[in-house]
Amino acid sequence: MRSPLFLALLAGLTATTTLSSAPAQADGHASGSVQIGPRPFFLVDQMAPGDLKTKLASCSAGPFEKSDWSIGHRGAPLQFPEHTEQSYRAAARMGAGIVECDVTFTKDRELVCRHAQNDLHTTTNILATPLAQNCTAPFEAASDGGKASAECRASDVTLAEFRTLTGKMDAADKTATSVEDYMDGTAGFRTDLYAGKGTLMTHAESIELFKELGVKFTPELKSPSVAMPYDGDYTQAAYAQQMIDEYKKAGVPPSDVFAQSFNLDDVLYWIEKEPEFGKQAVYLDNSYSKSGWSPEDESSWRHSMADLKAKGVNYIAPPMWVLVKLDGDKMVPSLYAQRAKEAGLKIITWTAERSGLLTKGGGWYYKSVKDQIDNEGDVFELMHVLHKDVGIAGLFSDWPATTTYYANCFGLK
């Protein structure tokens, strides 16, 4: 028997909702249109019967609006090369109200959108260009049981050279014996179908694009791969200030910017030096990387939630698994999540739809609840706990249509 959602799709419910009769943008889509496509319907169909599935199915006809609860993680990298114009536009079309540009710098200290300063070898075509000779570590083929390797940094090239590169899906085949094979390692749950063109962007260009698309900003200041100070006098503080200055120069209201960093000192710098931006700065807590750390053992935490709040931190952002645990067969908030709420911290988390198929427990992002993750629709089950029980303020996703669908169904603006 065909599911109600399948029949709705056949009847023409394409889930494309135009919110206004605003003029078309330069890329041909109307300002304010949200196009969520078939994936959310597919995921709802996979869910076990229950109240949540019934509720989500009832929302299939829309209307759908963009939501700040839906955050485009590096754009929409489930299918588009991350941190490219194409990926950002896709995220906005899918209703992400906030979109991320991870920020790093080039050899001439210009800010660009890359997930890491040392990822050009996996996220661009640099190894297939003459600029490969600039790389910190050239390509080495796999041999004698050793893995293929390379390291190419944004700081290995000038901005002008950076602009000549093309973005690709973030991947590398570590068994490769040629550059071509090394670059062709896209994970099976992603696709190269939309990787024919990946336009790289500077941070300043991303700001102008996001303004055009009507979305808010969540730049992440990435840890440099080079020693700081860099190039004589370029300090970490100067780097942190440069990122904020580009929003000020572009006339972006601080209330539209959620600056992020894994480095607490960056967040504290913004709180002190740029308080209007600092009050929305997001501390990406990577305490989970500490040996012996547990979200259920408060004594193992690097920072108490009360101390973070006392220092002026208002937003904290750990990965999804840190915020939940199992109580029998039920997903419930972790002690970490409870203490963050008690301290008055707002919680953002990452990253939905970054784990591939969930039939085998969902991998790292679901590690604390993996025994209850066994089908694709479980992304909505976890999402519901994060919203209703943990009370998150937003969720990063590699495919924002899914978070947008949930946000609209539950009235999250």
Layout of strands and helices, then pairs:
Elements: H1 4-10, E1 16-18, E2 33-35, H2 39-46, H3 51-57, E3 67-72, H4 85-93, E4 96-99, E5 102-105, E6 111-113, H5 120-123, E7 137-140, E8 149-151, H6 159-162, H7 179-183, H8 203-213, E9 216-217, E10 220-221, H9 236-249, E11 260-261, H10 264-273, H11 275-278, E12 282-283, H12 305-310, E13 315-316, E14 324-327, E15 330-333, H13 335-342, E16 346-352, H14 378-390, E17 394-397, H15 400-409
Parallel strand pairs: 3-4, 3-17, 4-9, 5-10, 11-12, 12-13, 13-16, 16-17
Antiparallel strand pairs: 1-2, 5-6, 7-8, 14-15
Helix pairs in contact: 4-8, 9-10
Number of strands: 17
Percentage beta strand: 5-15%
Shape label: globular
Largest sheet: 8 strands, parallel
Biggest β-sheet: strands ordered side by side in the sheet: 9-4-3-17-16-13-12-11
The rounded Rg comes to: 21 Å
Alpha-carbon distance between the two ends? 35 Å
Structural class: alpha/beta
Describe this entry's structure for a reader.
By secondary structure, the chain is an alpha/beta fold. The protein has helices at 4-10, 39-46, 51-57, 85-93, 120-123, 159-162, 179-183, 203-213, 236-249, 264-273, 275-278, 305-310, 335-342, 378-390, 400-409; strands at residues 16-18, 33-35, 67-72, 96-99, 102-105, 111-113, 137-140, 149-151, 216-217, 220-221, 260-261, 282-283, 315-316, 324-327, 330-333, 346-352, 394-397. An 8-stranded parallel beta sheet has the order 9-4-3-17-16-13-12-11, with helices on one face. A 3-stranded mixed beta sheet has the order 6-5-10, with helices on one face. Helix 4 runs parallel beside helix 8. The protein is globular, with a radius of gyration of 21 Å.
